[in-house]
Amino acid sequence: MSAPFGKNALSLSDVTKQMRTVFETFTDSRTGKNSNYKMTDAGLSAFSVFFMQSPSFLDFQRTMQETQGKNNAQTLFGVFKIPSDNHIRDLLDGVEPTEVYPLFDFVFNGFQRAGVIDSFRTKDNRLLLALDGTHYFSSQKLHGSCCSCKTHSSGKTSYSHTVVTPVLVNPGNNKVISLAPEFVCPQDGHAKQDCEINASLRWLERQGSQFAALGTTVLGDDLYCHEPFCLALLKKKLEFILVCKPDSHKTLYEWVDDLDRNGVVKTVVCKRWTGKRQEIDTYRYVNTVPLRDADDALMVNWCEITTRTEDGKVIYHNAFATSLAINDANVIEVVASGRARWKIENENNNTLKTKGYNFEHNFGHGKQFLSSLLATLILLAYLIHTMLDLMDDKFCLLRQKLSSRRRLFDDMKALTTYLCFDSWEHLLDFMLEGWSYKPESRIACSPES
Asked: Lowest CB count within 10 Å: 267, 290, 372, 403, which one?
């Protein structure tokens, strides 16, 4: 199996070289002459832990440096001198996550040149961008200036972190492309707590125009399906398909019910064979209904899907409000695009929390930005793993040969604990050579020998 975007592909060495350039500009809060370690080494050291999915990676490399005079943090990631874990945390605490964002743009631009972004387009040539917030830290003791806080009925106060993780998705693709995040964080001059919607609005101001130019439709859950956010999307010339629940959109559903009684709501029915059973998808849609109860309400288009088995049992139901005009020819595509929103939870947030990235683990909280910065580096590691899945032939071949993704990284962790590799290519070649080794080719030894 070869990487489908091998031509003009980014390599890990391309990215690590760019990392050095970006990390060299990290905010350095140190005063005086204490500069034994460079900010670049602190940033690359932290990133290497998340890339290798090994909390002990740096400990092993320090030991290797003592015994072999070289180490994999140096050869694979370009770390000149490995700081201690506490020193890394202290150095990075004053670095804002936005200082890492140029690396997301660097990878995204590489994806564009190689045609990866176009491969994520739908049949009607749209990019689908899903927004969702996810928690990654909570404590009743540790807290800092970037924490959200909540006082409970018991009188106790809890502190937490939430981040909006935008991703590009496609209904037929099991991969997502991570974009630079936006953190829910107390804002200067605001008395109220920050929230997911406000963070998404800030992301919209920062990157909305860029994605509007690419023909992007924004996906989100019912939290996003309210007029102020929809108007903000339209102002940026972005289309939307958002989950639309009856409980939070009573006026809209009253209109749908009235129009249905008058025969205005259209229906499309499709039967599918899943390989095990016959399923029946019933699509209903209507254009131009108000999103809220007001004369000047934003008018949206509405559609829903209900999936039943042959005996009539409902096994799936969902509904969406969209800025896209709906008709018999495109309602299935619109619904499929809306349902792709779940990929931000399944292929992104859940992967970050359960597939070796340990997104919810407290690698270090700090007093300023440390927790958010480390979360950003985890997201960057996930993005670069996706890049390797798409663009690195040898990495793809190993993914095919090994039983699971976890097995691949477990093998890498074991190998880099004992052996020093000159480069990423050297490590992959060594692993692939192990698969081509034929035991029967060994010279047989007699008992006497």
From this structure: 403
